[in-house]
């Protein structure tokens, strides 16, 4: 996702595939977390599992990975907002100002009055 958003031109199809995969992965993680919490309740365990060295170590690794993924997602959001800003700026430039336009809705040039003279473009 970051490589796609960091490129000068976004490949929308590839970005959509990555986004779909990311959403599916998140749904899986949420399902697994719910199961983890149910097992915790049944076994009367609680994160960060300080009483079990192996679980504690795994939990610490999960926490570190989660923090890293959070930072990456935040960065990707900034990249996406930057692309949205550039797109909005480009659209604003292309919109006619004060009713003057070089091209009409049909894509043909229109006459432009400059200094009292009509100029056809």
UniProtKB/TrEMBL annotation:
Q: Which SUPFAM superfamilies match?
A: FlgN-like (SSF140566)
Q: Which residues form the signal peptide?
A: none
> Chloroplast as a keyword?
no
Q: Does the keyword Lyase apply?
A: no
Q: Which residues form a coiled coil?
A: none
Q: What's in the keyword line of the UniProt record?
A: Bacterial flagellum biogenesis
Highest taxon of the lineage: Eukaryota
Against Gene3D superfamilies, the record matches this protein to:
FlgN-like (1.20.58.300)
Official protein name in the record: Flagellar biosynthesis protein FlgN
List the source organism. Answer: Bracon brevicornis
